[in-house]
Specification:
This protein is an alpha+beta fold and 161 residues long. It has four helices and seven strands; from the N terminus they run βααβββαβαββ. It has a domain of 107 residues: Aminopeptidase (3-Layer(aba) Sandwich).
Length: 161
């Protein structure tokens, strides 16, 4: 369990982070979107993170707790930036929500992009939508779900510096 005031360090992800990133991805989606159909097994999700997300993203940052010894601790969340200024993923462990970790990851993404940032969020994911709206993102298009494999209606958000 993470302490309320734990120091957090951001760094670029490495291949060695694949399992921890996968765990955050799966745990976050299960907690935030229990209505979402599970399409892939945990093993297939790990393979996707390992062979697609980590090596082909423009950048993937991880947030990790810093232990008392100053060494990196548990992975708390991650953000993956695709080409063209699209934020593909920003997920946090369910037990670290509302502690500034997501805001720090988003700031890192903003610092790496010279121009607007776009992202998709499932329409029913009210907490994520509120997070992005608090950070200045605007809903610019609504979709029926035909563009994602979950067939879940989503919304395109855009932020312009």
């Amino acid at each position: 369990m993470t302490s309320e005031h734990q120091e957090v360090r951001l760094r670029l992800a490495t291949a060695a982070d694949a399992e921890a990133v996968t765990r955050v991805f799966l745990d976050s989606r299960a907690a935030a979107m229990p209505y979402l159909r599970r399409i892939h097994s945990d093993e297939d999700t790990l393979a996707w993170i390992t062979h697609v997300v980590l090596p082909t993203s423009t950048a993937v940052w991880v947030a990790e707790g810093v232990g008392e010894d100053g060494e990196g601790g548990e992975l708390l969340g991650f953000a993956a930036l695709a080409g063209g200024g699209e934020l593909d993923h920003l997920y946090l462990r369910p037990d670290v929500l509302r502690r500034g970790v997501g805001s720090r990851l988003l700031a890192e993404v903003r610092g790496a992009v010279d121009g607007p940032i776009g992202l998709y969020v499932f329409q029913r994911n009210a907490a994520a939508r509120a997070f992005y709206e608090r950070h200045g993102f605007t809903a610019v298009a609504f979709d029926d779900g035909g563009r994602n494999e979950e067939n879940e209606p989503d919304v395109l958000y855009r932020w312009t510096p």
